[in-house]
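Objective 1b. Sequence-to-structure analysis of N-formylglutamate amidohydrolase.
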Amino acid sequence: MIPFRASGLRAASLLLTSPHSGTYLPPAFRTTSHLSTLALRRIEDAHVGTLLALAVERGAPLIEATHARAWLDLNRAEDELDPGLFDTPPPRPLADTERVRAGYGLIPKLAGTHTPIHHRPLQWADAEARIETLHRPWHAEIAARLAAARSQHGTALLLDCHSMPTLPGPRPAQVVLGDAHGTTADPALTAAVADWLRGRGWRVALNAPYAGGHAIRRHGAPAQGIHALQLEIDRALYMDLATLRPNAGFVRLASMLADLAGWCLARAPAIMAGQWRQAAE
């Protein structure tokens, strides 16, 4: 199985990524987990890659994960691993992050129902193999495409796309934009994207409760002309939360994402270039 699927123009100024919509689980996975496929899928961003298909048709490139998040989470750093997952002490230091402690590190410990995924320990060599065959190729491809886009257009934008559970409250945000509190993208760009979404009727929050994961922090470098935003979308807008099947809102959301991608391709480079020029002066 290939580590990812890539489609669309290679060096467009915008790159879409969907790191959590993969569904493939290697046969070896079943030697350590007895959970049902549906239970495991509850930690994935189901159908996000399909939601972005119309955006690809309109010229936006997309990189989509093939493997399930339960196998490896591409939006985590290589060292975000729970040492308790393994049958022997890990041979190198690991990062004790909030996400790891919550059970959602590079190799998730828990399913979406907070149920343990694995019924027996993993081998460290297995984790290294997943990193080598999936994590490193994924991030190398993102870096190469963003570098090519910046070389051709002067700037580049990564839009890392996810879905989220419905947030609490009477009128919760339907979309959360994250730029790691202004560090991975020009705040003017973040504000412009948020305004575009609000202008089309969507309720939008910035950096709360999701400020952005590993991908945008790794690849976003606004001072060097590469900007990165994380986009979280309420799953209830496009799928049945019990069955994970697309609902009546799927087509509308896909159209919105295609329009957003078109806007980013047409307008974002000028906004990003404002900071690019300032950094060069």
